[in-house]
Amino acid sequence: MNPTMRVFSLLCVSVSLLCSILSGEPIRIFYDVGPTTFEVTEFRKGLPVLDTSTDSEVERHRFGEGWSYAGELPIDPKFMSSIYQYQIKKDPELYTNRNEPSEYWVQFRLPGSLKGKTKSSDGGLVIFGWLVDQEVRAVEIVTQGSSDDISLPLGFKGREIDPDGSLAVWLIDDTGNLKPIDEENKEVNDLLRLAAVNGNVDTLSRLIEENPKRLKYKDGKDRTLMMYAASGGRANVVEYLIGKGTDPFAEDKFMVNVLDIAGGNGWLDIVKLIATDKATGSKQRLQYSLGALSAFNKGHQEIAIYLMELGARLNLDKSSASKRVLAMLANERVALARWMQETYKVKGTYSKDGVNFMHAIAGYADVELLESVKAGGASVTQVSSNGITPLLVACGVGNRNAICWLMENGGAASESGSHDPVLHAIREGAPESVSCLIDYGVSVNKEAREGVSPLMYAVNLGEKEISETLLEAGGLWLFESEYSASSLRKAIRLNSSMVIEGLFEQGLSADYTFSSGSGLMELAAFYDSDEVLELLERRLNNTEPKLVGVKELSAKPELAYRTMVEYPIELQEKYGDLDVTLKVGVAASGDVVAVEVGEEAPEEVRKRVELTILAWKFKPLEMNDDQLLVEMKFKIPLRVSFREEDIFELNRVNELPRALTQVEPNYPFALKKAKVRGFVDLQWVLDAEGKVRRLEVANSTHSAFNEPAIESIKRSRWEPAKYKGEPVAVRVKQRLTFVP
Known about the structure:
By secondary structure, the chain is α+β, with helices and mostly antiparallel strands. Among the domains are: 1-70, no CATH class; 188-309, Serine Threonine Protein Phosphatase 5, Tetratricopeptide repeat; 551-638, TolA/TonB C-terminal domain; 644-738, TonB (TolA/TonB C-terminal domain, 2-Layer Sandwich), CATH 3.30.2420.10. A five-stranded antiparallel sheet has the order 5-2-1-7-6, with helices on one face.
């Protein structure tokens, strides 16, 4: 069961008691399954009971996949606590969103002052809310269980996150009661940190006037009030503290400073309050450089450029600068790419493995950017080492501006075979690209492979709109091809009368039968393709489809050959246990000619199941009419190979896991040169095969250390833990240190 489901399972038992505690409308929990909405009032064996469907029209707050709730959390100090252990981050500006409002996200941890209040043998709930003008804009709910801490950062993200808001927390114990929180006895240090991170200058000023020594407050990690203010993006507090004489270049135990925090979180206004002039002295140059590095790694272009213009250095040689410019253009960091290109004299003709600057921008660029990059020397026809041109990049994502501009500027040269732009657009599911290419006269009949026309290719991929567009433009069906019959089944499934009518015009007969004996009408009835069925009935003078159920047979079909559905660990971790509903069409020959997988299964699972079932074979059926198609319905279970309860803690195994080969993490050059030390705490599940699963960063002194640490664990080889001699899955925690 995934974490979201476990969270809400616990929440369900709290509902009845919450109703008598919360002010206003009681909290009610809902879960949507397709078009049906269930109200959750209980759970069994850790799973919510979804047996009470509702058409309730109450206003609901939606969050998580399928989940929502109705009612309001009480904005009442008796039950709500403000917390300071969070930071607000601004999303980096991309070229395509440069004119849109900024988007923010909040990352937070359970504050130490609340840990003991949430501990219980059966677990409780911690409800975080983002408050804006006394309104809860976002909610995150987690279980506390018997743990003393929530080590992994949680978060909100979206346009509902107003950076002027603040974080609050509510506690629910294991009996479902909303727990009172004693806010009156908060320590002065808590109040200082709260005022700093929430931007409350009045409160901070009052506390400091009461005792001026509080201006120099540092926590156990030497974090200052200005660092807390920078975490919350509170420029007003930073300005106040600078005015009071606070050192803006103070560092904590890990050499993290305010520029580092503000740069990584995207707060240009705070950076400008501190870095007011050219860097002077080695310490200041180092801090400017660390701030620029954090901004650079997080994509905050304005901050990185601002600090580099004041003396920050990223220690890039010309070769690595060229690669960086290419990567930044590909990731829509256009302003920073242009600045670096000019500063490091990077030529506009640069390419890596045949990928040039035009490839990098073709997926998102407008005409202005395309013309600028071309003027700089980037070729519009360059072919990468894997045969991709800028036009193919644009076609793959449906960037009509780029497609049109490239077609008009010579960018369609030497497109052939599997890299034909029309085929590429079909493969990527971009109907607007197909339409655009047709307008420019590109052929719609270059075969995807021998015997598969673009029309057949689109049909096989389930692209209804593209298939209809290709037919209108003269797309052909290759009836003599060995792939015609299998593609025709997919055409029936599209439920497009326009496509089938177009095939009739090309020579398809309405009474066509497949090698299995079934006809078009039987498949249309099986797939509930109403448009196609109506068309066929008209052409065949209201003939009824020969589709029967299993109960109408004298003997139940017997399987002659079957294979198990493969359920890879990656899908197991995403979806957990699944009961997949199947509708299978079996011909008189025993061949499986049609499969429909229930929509309750995710698409990537449905495709895998369908391909497997199509390979099944039944014994020939006893039927008088070979054209009959038997419709069968059943379920197959897909189960995870290990469950949460099967994952051991380290203190329960007989033999600890060990690294067979431990790969040393790559020390970021700029941090190593600056002699910045730090660590990354990682946690993951090492399964019974020695494979690393669910690898996450639990804590880190600097974000630049995170990726090298993750890669180190992934690339290392592990021997699994053992319990009574048998390999088992186990939870692992490890700290990787970076010491220059």
